Amino acid sequence: MTAARPESALLAPGWTGSPAARATNDDAYLRALLDAEAALTRAQETLGAAPEGAGAAVTAAACGDFDVRSLAERARGGGNPVIPLVADLTEAAGPEFGPYVHRGATSQDIMDTATMLVAARALHPVLADLDRTQAALARLAAGHRDTAMPGRTLTQHAVPTTFGLKAAGWRSLVLDARDRITAVRDSLPAQLGGAAGTAAAFTAYGARDTTALTAAYAREVGLAAPLLPWHTLRTPVADLAGCLAFTAGALGKLATDVLVLARTEIAEVAEGGGGGSSAMPHKANPVRSTLIAAAARRAPQLAATLYGSLVAEDERPAGAWHAEWEPLRDLLRLVGGAARDAAELTGGLRVNADAMRSHLGLTHGLVVSERLSAELSGLLGRARARELLTGLARRAYAEHRPLVELLSQEPDLKDVDLGELTDPARYTGSAGALTDRALERR
Question: Considering the entire predicted model, what is its pTM?
Answer without folding.
Answer: 0.93
